[in-house]
Design brief:
By secondary structure, this protein is mostly helical. It has four helices and no strands. The chain is elongated and about 80 Å long.
Length: 120
Protein backbone atom coordinates (compact mmCIF):
# COMPACT_ATOMS: atom_id res chain seq x y z
CA UNK A 1 0.00 0.00 0.00
CA UNK A 2 1.40 3.38 -0.92
CA UNK A 3 1.82 6.21 1.56
CA UNK A 4 -0.94 8.23 -0.16
CA UNK A 5 -3.46 5.39 0.02
CA UNK A 6 -2.56 4.80 3.70
CA UNK A 7 -3.07 8.49 4.40
CA UNK A 8 -6.37 8.46 2.53
CA UNK A 9 -7.55 5.45 4.56
CA UNK A 10 -6.55 7.15 7.82
CA UNK A 11 -8.43 10.31 6.84
CA UNK A 12 -11.53 8.26 5.98
CA UNK A 13 -11.32 6.56 9.39
CA UNK A 14 -10.91 9.93 11.08
CA UNK A 15 -13.99 11.30 9.30
CA UNK A 16 -16.01 8.23 10.30
CA UNK A 17 -14.92 8.60 13.93
CA UNK A 18 -15.82 12.29 13.89
CA UNK A 19 -19.29 11.55 12.50
CA UNK A 20 -19.84 8.84 15.13
CA UNK A 21 -18.71 11.20 17.86
CA UNK A 22 -21.07 13.92 16.61
CA UNK A 23 -24.00 11.47 16.50
CA UNK A 24 -23.22 10.29 20.04
CA UNK A 25 -23.06 13.87 21.28
CA UNK A 26 -26.44 14.69 19.69
CA UNK A 27 -28.02 11.57 21.21
CA UNK A 28 -26.69 12.44 24.67
CA UNK A 29 -27.92 16.00 24.37
CA UNK A 30 -31.36 14.78 23.33
CA UNK A 31 -31.48 12.26 26.16
CA UNK A 32 -30.57 14.76 28.87
CA UNK A 33 -32.77 17.55 27.57
CA UNK A 34 -35.89 15.37 27.28
CA UNK A 35 -38.92 16.39 29.40
CA UNK A 36 -38.93 15.15 32.98
CA UNK A 37 -41.98 12.96 32.41
CA UNK A 38 -39.91 10.54 30.36
CA UNK A 39 -37.50 10.05 33.21
CA UNK A 40 -38.33 7.47 35.87
CA UNK A 41 -39.88 8.95 38.98
CA UNK A 42 -37.74 9.12 42.07
CA UNK A 43 -38.75 6.69 44.80
CA UNK A 44 -40.78 8.24 47.61
CA UNK A 45 -38.73 9.35 50.59
CA UNK A 46 -38.45 6.77 53.30
CA UNK A 47 -39.87 7.44 56.70
CA UNK A 48 -37.20 8.72 58.99
CA UNK A 49 -36.08 6.15 61.45
CA UNK A 50 -34.47 6.96 64.72
CA UNK A 51 -30.78 6.85 63.96
CA UNK A 52 -28.74 4.46 66.01
CA UNK A 53 -25.64 6.03 67.48
CA UNK A 54 -22.70 5.64 65.17
CA UNK A 55 -20.08 3.23 66.45
CA UNK A 56 -17.02 4.96 67.80
CA UNK A 57 -14.27 5.14 65.22
CA UNK A 58 -11.13 3.33 66.21
CA UNK A 59 -8.23 5.64 66.91
CA UNK A 60 -6.16 6.29 63.82
CA UNK A 61 -2.82 4.54 63.86
CA UNK A 62 0.22 6.71 63.31
CA UNK A 63 3.80 5.73 62.66
CA UNK A 64 6.61 7.57 64.41
CA UNK A 65 7.47 9.23 61.08
CA UNK A 66 3.86 10.41 60.66
CA UNK A 67 3.84 11.94 64.13
CA UNK A 68 7.25 13.50 63.64
CA UNK A 69 6.01 15.16 60.43
CA UNK A 70 2.84 16.46 62.09
CA UNK A 71 4.80 17.84 65.03
CA UNK A 72 7.33 19.52 62.75
CA UNK A 73 4.63 21.11 60.61
CA UNK A 74 2.82 22.48 63.64
CA UNK A 75 6.03 23.70 65.29
CA UNK A 76 7.00 25.60 62.13
CA UNK A 77 3.49 26.91 61.48
CA UNK A 78 2.93 30.67 61.76
CA UNK A 79 6.59 31.48 62.06
CA UNK A 80 7.26 28.94 64.81
CA UNK A 81 4.77 30.32 67.31
CA UNK A 82 3.67 26.80 68.36
CA UNK A 83 7.17 25.38 68.87
CA UNK A 84 7.12 25.72 72.67
CA UNK A 85 3.59 24.28 72.93
CA UNK A 86 4.55 21.30 70.75
CA UNK A 87 7.62 20.61 72.89
CA UNK A 88 5.48 20.83 76.03
CA UNK A 89 3.01 18.28 74.65
CA UNK A 90 5.82 15.90 73.68
CA UNK A 91 7.17 16.15 77.24
CA UNK A 92 3.66 15.49 78.57
CA UNK A 93 3.31 12.25 76.59
CA UNK A 94 6.95 11.14 76.74
CA UNK A 95 8.66 11.53 80.06
CA UNK A 96 11.98 12.34 78.40
CA UNK A 97 10.81 15.22 76.26
CA UNK A 98 11.57 13.38 73.03
CA UNK A 99 9.29 11.62 70.57
CA UNK A 100 11.37 8.51 71.17
CA UNK A 101 10.01 8.43 74.73
CA UNK A 102 6.35 8.69 73.63
CA UNK A 103 4.69 5.25 73.51
CA UNK A 104 3.09 4.41 70.14
CA UNK A 105 -0.34 3.99 71.77
CA UNK A 106 -0.21 7.67 72.80
CA UNK A 107 0.39 8.92 69.23
CA UNK A 108 -3.33 9.48 68.43
CA UNK A 109 -3.86 11.55 71.59
CA UNK A 110 -0.69 13.54 71.02
CA UNK A 111 -1.65 14.29 67.40
CA UNK A 112 -5.16 15.29 68.45
CA UNK A 113 -3.79 17.78 70.98
CA UNK A 114 -1.17 19.13 68.59
CA UNK A 115 -3.75 19.64 65.85
CA UNK A 116 -5.95 21.45 68.35
CA UNK A 117 -3.30 24.06 69.13
CA UNK A 118 -4.38 27.58 68.25
CA UNK A 119 -3.07 31.01 69.04
CA UNK A 120 -5.99 31.64 71.38
Amino acid sequence: MSKMSELSLMIDNLITCGETLAETGKALKEFYSAPDEDKPAAPPPEKKKKAAPAPAEPAKQYSKEDVRGILARKANEAGGQYKVQVKTLVKKYGNGGSLTNVPAESYPDLVKEVEGLTDA
